[in-house]
Design goal:
Elements: E1 3-7, H1 18-27, E2 32-35, H2 44-54, E3 57-66, E4 72-77, H3 84-110, H4 117-124, H5 130-139, H6 146-154, H7 169-178, E5 182-185, H8 195-207, E6 212-216, H9 222-234, E7 238-241, H10 265-281
Parallel strand pairs: 1-2, 2-3, 5-6, 6-7
Antiparallel strand pairs: 3-4, 4-5
Helix pairs in contact: 1-2, 4-5, 5-6
Bound molecules: adenosine monophosphate, fe (iii) ion (FE) (2 copies) and zinc ion (ZN).
């Protein structure tokens, strides 16, 4: 069985629509997938409809940005995508992202890298993020690639960067649990912390309701994945895997990238679905 539990679409910063992502997953032989857009659940319905036609089971998912300056991402799975509190939260995050993007555009204009908020909005189509700002910078000829835009302007310490408002892991985990889902720590290696610190954080967040760790992700080299797998087993946390697909020509690879090492897909997906079903009953 093939599964990919971390995919992005045009509802946030991916290049393909939810329908296109789902059809691509089906075409590549995946039978389970999760559309996990940043701070956004708008694409789930279309992905599920397409999945029903194409023979892919689509698990409702979301990737919530936590930690302000620090890239701490919490994945939610198996929640009710029409949960009013979750929808309100996402709407508020989307609004905040517009204000933040406006600040980044102003900062860039101030150093002569002129782009317009309107153009970034057009390029986004959904929830706005730095990749859309990067694409606008490239289109305007200020940089040659999205990666160059990030490196020169859009990462902490660079002149175009503006942090997101801080959302705590506790808040994200509770939001997902209250919507009937389970919370999983996305790509732990991307937090750029030592193994010791990751261990301590995961332990702390588990006490706050964190239910799993994304062990299989392109950012985890084999030794990292081994460390994360041991940590998950020791803490009795769910194990998940995802490619973090954003579309062709982005910083990530294709659907399924980095997941050939994930040998316990069937058991891990079953455990995730079971945990989500149990979370749902608690409401
Ligand atoms: P934001 O949510 O607006 O802070 O943007 C973060 C997103 O930018 C991440 O989820 C990635 O998809 C993307 N990203 C991060 N670094 C890069 C990079 N070097 N090149 C392209 N995209 C990136
Ligand atoms: Fe992204
Ligand atoms: Fe992420
Ligand atoms: Zn992601």
């Amino acid at each position: 069985m093939k599964a990919d539990l971390h995919l992005h679409s045009t509802a946030s910063d991916g290049m393909l629509s939810p329908r296109e992502v789902t059809l691509r997953a089906a075409g590549l032989g995946f039978s389970v997938m999760a559309l996990s857009d940043h701070d956004c659940v708008d694409g789930i319905c279309a992905a599920q409809e397409t999945g029903a036609e194409a023979g892919v089971h689509v698990i409702p998912a979301v990737e919530l940005s936590c930690g302000g300056d620090r890239e701490i991402h919490i994945l939610g799975y198996g929640f009710d995508p029409s949960d009013a509190v979750l929808l309100d939260f996402c709407a508020e995050r989307a609004r905040a992202r517009i204000g933040r993007t406006e600040k980044m555009v102003q900062r860039l204009c101030a150093i002569g890298k002129e782009i317009s908020l309107e153009r970034v909005r057009e390029l986004s189509g959904g929830v706005m993020g730095r990749p859309h700002v990067a694409r606008a910078l490239m289109e305007a000829g200020h940089v040659r690639s999205v990666n160059e835009a990030f490196e020169r302007f859009l990462i902490p310490g660079k002149p175009g960067y503006e942090p997101k408002e801080d959302v705590s892991v506790r808040e994200a985990v509770e939001l997902i649990a209250n919507a009937g889902g389970v919370a999983v720590l996305a790509h732990p290696m991307e937090m750029r912390r030592s193994e010791m610190v990751i261990e301590a954080l995961v332990h702390e967040w588990k006490a706050q309701g964190l239910a799993g760790v994304e062990v299989w992700h392109p950012s985890a080299q084999n030794n990292h994945a081994r460390f994360l797998l041991n940590l998950a087993r020791r803490e009795e946390l769910l194990v998940t895997g995802g490619s973090d697909f954003h579309g062709k020509g982005t910083h990530r690879g294709d659907i399924g990238e980095g997941l050939d090492r994930w040998t316990t897909v069937e058991d891990d997906v079953a455990a995730l679905m079971h945990a989500a079903a149990c979370a749902g009953y608690r409401r």
